[in-house]
Structures are given as structure tokens and as C-alpha cells.
Amino acid sequence: MPSLEAALSHGPVVLDGGLSNQLEAAGHDLSDALWTARLLRDDPSAIVDAHLSYYAAGASIVLTASYQASYPGFARHGITAAETTELLQRSVSLARQAQERYAGPERPLWIAASVGPYGASLADGSEYRGRYGLSAAELRDFHAPRLAALAEAGPDLFAVETIPDVDEAEVLVALAAELDVPVWLSYTVDGLSTRAGQPLADAFAVAAGVPQVIAAGVNCSAPGDVAAAVAVAAEVTGKPVVAYPNSGEVWDAAARRWTGQARLSADDVRSWLAAGVKLLGGCCRVGPAEIAELARACSAA
């Protein structure tokens, strides 16, 4: 199988869509604090089915169900450290089960181990604010064990995603470099700032010059914020750009539900491809139907 870096030199690569909305569409309750990570323990076959739905829709990369999985988060639910390691690594093996159903010489497929921010483990919307009040050492203590466990399972790369804060990005990029695992760095943004209010030029500078970072960009953001943000990512890093926004609906953390209407359009997709986005998919509320449409747009490009 060719490396993802080699594939990016030939054209855009399609990512999957939102794991949570696909699991909810299949009837699974994700209302507790563990969110999709709960099913790693309680119903792993459901996660395989969700990955299969995105590979079937035309995605070439799926992200594992590890976004909200962490040692402290699982410990709060009575899950031991050893069990947490097994669940983190299971997230990669479940994606591999789906990959093996569709991969072949004419269709290379990859697995990105999802590494969400510290705020995701709090299940209170903190990933959309950042500035947790933690030191770099405390953030490192939180992230290092989970990245090490995921790396041992052998994903093709890390998807360091929905990062709201430059401080956290610096810790995560350094850890990926130490483990020598390829990684993309993806911020959640508000206009031309991170969610924590830092300029995107400063945020993307974290990825510049780090060989393990193969792409940088944005996810879990409004479609209207993508174009300007990816232009900054391309200029500052000189690397391929990744973009996988939400549908356009807005998450109400207090009510734990989505509000508003979807605004992701085919015209958006074409404009992002024209702007040089090389890794393109969807995040929350973007399902297999939208990924299939996106895959068709990428093939046309």
C-alpha cells in the first residue's frame, strides 16, 4: 500500500464523516460522558459497521473511535488502566476489520487514530473553549499514555483533531514527533482564530518544520470558516491541508443537542479543493450520503 504522503501528491484523499451521528442513526444512545468511546466496550461491532458505512461511501481514511477515550475519563467509569489500554488499541483493530473488507491494490485505505483534546474528556464542551488552566506538563501527562497505546496498535497516522488551543497543540505535536508517527494537526476555529482566541498564523506555526506533521488544517468548525483558515494553514506550514467541517449546525453543550440547519454544500467542497485542500471529509452531522457526494466531487477534481 502506498504511503498517505505519496497519495496526497496525486490528488485529494477523502476522509470519513461524523462517527457519532452514524452511530446514533443506527440507534445507539451516546448521551453519557464517554460518548462514542463507550461502544468500544459495550458494542464494538457497531463501530465496525459505522466504519464500513464510510468506506462504502467512498472514504479512503476512517478515524478511530478514540476521540473521547482517555485514562482519566475511563477511570471515572470504573475502567482500569489495563482495560483502557486494551480499549484504545481496540479502536484501531476495529477500524482495521473494516479496512480489510474494502482495501485492495486499486483502493488503498488508511486508518487515522483519533486524538481529541483534553476538553473532550470533560464532556462539557470545553474543547470549544480551550484554556483549561493546565500546564504543558499536565497536558503531557494526560496525552502521553493514550498516544503511546494508540501508536502500539499500529495506525497509519494520528489525527490530532478539534484542538482549540495552541498550548495543547504544541504538546501533542511534540509527542507525535517523539513517537515518530505521522500526524495531521487540525484546529477547531472561529474565523481566523482558534477557539481559545489565538491567531491562526501562530497556531499553524506549531506544525511548520516538524517532519512528522504531514498535514494541517481545521475540523469541527462551521463550513463558512474553512476557506480563510485553510489559506492560512497552507501559507504558514507549506504542507497539505486537511479540512473536515461540521454540517453547519451548532452544538448546544448545555442541552447536549444540535441546533440550526445544515449548510455544507457542493459549492463549498469545490472551492476548498480549488484552494488546495488535499484531505477532505466531514465532522459532526456529516454522514455517508454527504461523504459519497464529496467523494464524487474529489474524483471529478
UniProtKB/TrEMBL annotation:
- Report keywords, A-Z: Metal-binding, Methyltransferase, Transferase, Zinc
Q: Where does this protein hold Zn(2+)?
A: C220, C283, C284
**Keyword Metal-binding on entry:** yes
The organism is Amycolatopsis melonis
What is the organism lineage in this UniProt record? Bacteria, Bacillati, Actinomycetota, Actinomycetes, Pseudonocardiales
Which top-rank group of organisms is this from? Bacteria
GO biological processes: methylation
EC numbers for this chain: 2.1.1.10
Q: Any idea where the Hcy-binding domain is?
A: 1-298
According to its UniProt record, this protein's enzyme class is transferase
Look up the record and name the cofactor or cofactors this protein needs: Zn(2+)
Methyltransferase found in the keyword field: yes
Task: Supply the NCBIfam families for this chain.
Answer: PRK09485.1 (NF007020)
Q: Which InterPro entries match?
A: HCY_dom (IPR003726), HCY_dom_sf (IPR036589), Hcy_S-methyltransferase (IPR051486)
Protein name from the UniProt record: Homocysteine S-methyltransferase
Q: Which GO terms describe its molecular function?
A: methyltransferase activity
